[in-house]
Design goal:
Elements (H helix, E strand, L loop, with lengths): L10 H6 L26 H4 L3 H31 L1 E5 L14 E5 L10 E4 L9 E8 L3 E5 L4 E4 L2 E2 L19 E2 L4 E5 L17 E2 L3 E10 L5 E2 L2
Antiparallel strand pairs: 1-2, 2-11, 3-4, 3-11, 4-9, 5-6, 5-8, 6-7, 9-10, 11-12
Length: 227
């Protein structure tokens, strides 16, 4: 009879055998029950008492939590309170230059003369503009293009912020009175600015003022408040 059909060793004897050569291990050699591995402990924590380890972990969690909350607050502020916008063009020279970046705010904002604002009111060029408010609702604006002088309610404006005297007229005839709820704006670069002097822009409805530019954030060598 072939030796692979029957074995001369009984089942009982097989159970009692301790055979190392066939891969089986005796009961005495069975390994202890494998436990779940513990997460590694940083070397600097290994020497700390349990109380100090717990305290250190809490401090780390609190620090991470504070950082997350701070980031959320910053995102909310720059979404609903502040905005960063870029300047396109030279109409606000010398105050603002092309590609400058400024922070806008509209929190509790009330337009007033001298403010630099970004306007989204539709116009002939279909683009937002950044200008300076010269007059608000109810005020009269008059410009003498021969003397290069701007008057508001008969008062000559002292405009230290402009690049050159106002010499460029458009199609609006002066004097004009600003309707309530609107403002009159001009660029600081008076002879290279498309603004309320042109009927294509005209008076600006206050509802279309995106916000007041209050701080320049770029370029970094020009960081600072705007006035």
């Amino acid at each position: 009879m072939d030796n692979w059909e029957k074995s001369s060793v009984s089942d009982t004897e097989t159970d009692q055998m301790q055979l190392g050569w066939d891969g089986r291990i005796s009961a005495e050699e069975q390994p202890e029950e494998i436990q779940d591995p513990q997460p590694p402990v940083p070397p600097e924590w290994q020497q700390l008492p349990d109380e100090e380890r717990f305290s250190l972990k809490n401090e780390v969690y609190e620090w991470v939590e504070s950082l997350v909350y701070s980031l959320v607050v910053v995102v909310l502020l720059f979404t609903f309170v502040f905005r960063i916008v870029g300047v396109d063009g030279n109409s606000m020279l010398p105050t603002l230059h092309n590609e400058d970046r400024v922070i806008l705010t509209n929190l509790f904002y009330e337009p007033k003369r001298g403010d630099i604002v970004v306007v989204t009111q539709p116009n002939e060029r279909n683009e937002p503009i950044i200008k300076r408010i010269i007059a608000t609702g109810g005020q009269e604006v008059n410009i003498d293009f021969q003397k290069h002088e701007v008057y508001v309610d008969g008062e000559l404006l002292q405009e230290d912020y402009i690049l050159a005297p106002t010499a460029l007229p458009y199609d609006v005839k002066f004097p004009v009175t600003v309707p309530e709820g609107k403002v009159f704006v001009m660029g600081d670069n008076r002879n290279d600015s498309w603004d309320s002097r042109a009927s294509g822009v005209g008076f600006i409805d206050e509802r279309y003022i995106l916000g007041e530019a209050v701080f320049r954030v770029y370029p970094f060598n020009s960081l600072g408040l705007l006035n």
